[in-house]
Amino acid sequence: MVKVGLTGGIGSGKSEVARRLAERGAVVVDADKIAREVVEPGTSGLALIVTEFGPEVLREDGSLDRERLGKIVFADSAKLARLNAIVHPRVGERVAELQRAAPPDAVVVYDVPLLAENGLAPMYDVVIVVDASDATRLARLTGARGMDEQDALARIRAQASREDRLKIADIVIANEGDLDALEERVSEVWARLCERRDAAETPRA
């Protein structure tokens, strides 16, 4: 098994890279998706968030209003830390379950937005950083996603800097261009990951 940590700032295209790696056969563990699962209605995670931030972070149907919560925590580092203390341990437990279920010869890609922020690079055999400039990411967030510019900037600033992410990268996927260029680069990276997996599986004489 090759354990790959995949990260990138919001708007970098990390999720698109994860999707393309999955198409090629990677087992993708999506930390964002798991983070949503551990705060669904009826979970202890959601109950603790309501206790910490108040019932105003709930929608009428009892689910978490992620946009409202985001505006609260991304503008206040202490509140963000309190939210992470609730969510991250629960995500970690679920990730460990999925890892145990993966085939022993798998390339397992952990899609982890806060890999750099939480010092998680040593957990992986390979760290891939999807990289785009802050200006490109802001344009994507305010354009394709329709996000308010100040909200988008707050989210970018709440994450690690571009430089800090690049420091932990074993492989960088630059994503400033079009999807054809991204597809070509993902193919190159997938070939490298498969070579590493196959080398690890080959018994030494």
Automatic annotation (TrEMBL):
Q: Which UniProt keywords apply?
A: ATP-binding, Coenzyme A biosynthesis, Cytoplasm, Kinase, Nucleotide-binding, Transferase
According to its UniProt record, in which pathway does this protein act? Cofactor biosynthesis; coenzyme A biosynthesis; CoA from (R)-pantothenate: step 5/5
Give the UniProt subcellular location, in the record's own words: Cytoplasm
GO molecular function of the protein, one example? ATP binding
By its UniProt entry, which InterPro entries does this protein fall under?
Depp_CoAkinase, P-loop_NTPase
- Which cellular components does GO assign to this protein? cytoplasm
Q: Where does ATP bind?
A: G11, S12, G13, K14, S15, E16
Q: What is its EC number?
A: 2.7.1.24
Q: Which family does it belong to?
A: Belongs to the CoaE family.
- HAMAP family noted in UniProt: Dephospho_CoA_kinase
Q: What is this protein called?
A: Dephospho-CoA kinase
